[in-house]
Amino acid sequence: MIQSILFASDLGVLSAYSLAYVEQLAKPFNSKITLLHVVPPVDALAAAVVQSRCSDQTKVEVLQASHIVGLLDNIREQTFERLAADDFGLEFTQLLDDIVIVAGPPAKTIIEQAAEREADVIVMGNCSDADPATTALGSVTNKVLQLARIPVFVVPLHFTSPWLSSGAFAPVDNP
Known about the structure:
By secondary structure, this protein is of the alpha/beta class. The protein has a single domain, classed as Rossmann fold (3-Layer(aba) Sandwich), CATH 3.40.50. 45% of the residues lie in helices and 17% in strands. It has seven helices and five strands. It has helices at 15-26, 44-53, 56-63, 65-85, 87-93, 106-116, 139-147, and strands at 4-8, 32-39, 96-103, 121-125, 152-155. It has a five-stranded parallel β-sheet.
């Protein structure tokens, strides 16, 4: 029985296609869904550029942990608002337990969040905005498949999906 689903999403336009699969997987079991979006952390190179090229005020704003948390909270709110405003997304939110936006290495963070939330299955797309003709699996999907200790449901994402018109996942401004 599937009681908990971790839906890992890049919140890109193709993610709307995966929503249909997540919902259909959750409905028969009345499963709770956690939508997870992982943003890459500020890496050493970016931090060095900010340190060497930016004003003191910008350094404080960009590198301060509370500022990053505020940005992540903003993305979370935008995501919930977009889902709630869309007819399909509104139905999806009834199964939604939480929206989690965290910074970290994507594949590792997905695995950690699945364990922390005791997910029974991870659902994710095969790649983000890459050309499906040239990319069978994205690097994050590939790594999650290698590391996961629970089933991973991979949804093939294509630009021709009929679900793209739903609008639930319009581009989100990432930090």
